[in-house]
Here is the input.
Amino acid sequence: MSEQRHIADSAEGASASNPTVDASRALRRAQRQAQRGLYAEAIGTLNAAMSLGADPYECYLRQARLYQSLGQWGDAVASAEKAIARKPHNVTARETIIALLIESHDFGRAVEAIRDLLRIAPDHVGARDALGTAYVGLGDLDAALRVINETIRLRPYDPIQRFRRGLIYEHKGEARLAIAEFSLVADLSEDEDLADSAREHLDDLDMAQLHDILLLAGDDPVFRTKLITNPEVAIAERGFGLSEWGLRRLAEFAAEGLTQYGGSGTPLTYH
Here is the structure.
């Protein structure tokens, strides 16, 4: 029994004098602390692990995520930058800093970080998606649209990109183009939540467009006459657009002569 204890003590003493073993223990301790929500303590333990020889790149990357959990965005970004400095061509650290900058609404720096990543990995799909998000955050919808258009050129039937393009068109007041995008998503997306969101946007756009069409028809007899005889052509000539359901609803109004719908509108629901 005493011999077994001696062997165990010897092994423990040997490991205690081995920096690699000590660094591994510190890393495991930091992981346990993080799992228990002791983020600040885990950050300190990672500093100790680095002093014992742990890989600084991995430690800085883990610290960035811990600072993120604490909501300390400046420290999180600084830690990610230290990781990048250690391994400039590693994609993971650059992905991390982009996510941090977007989450903290530092969109200008996010654009710079994304461009840096694209210089290293030109075909990085996630970076292009993030670039569109960052431009939207900056309020530069035209730049965001250019990025999304390029992505759609490569992936024409990607429902998420189509949905994003619909959102940008909607924000730009391009209702006809937005309706085309949301209609495609509603028809093609296998993600029911995304399809439902597209239908909700179609509801809103159809309601707004029908309201404006009926107001104009009440004021413009020429437009009203053409609307009754050929509604789809009539609205296209005036720059309006409707979903298939919106067109059916408009045809119902046209069949009833439109006069009783002089701008009052009726409750609408997408079918």
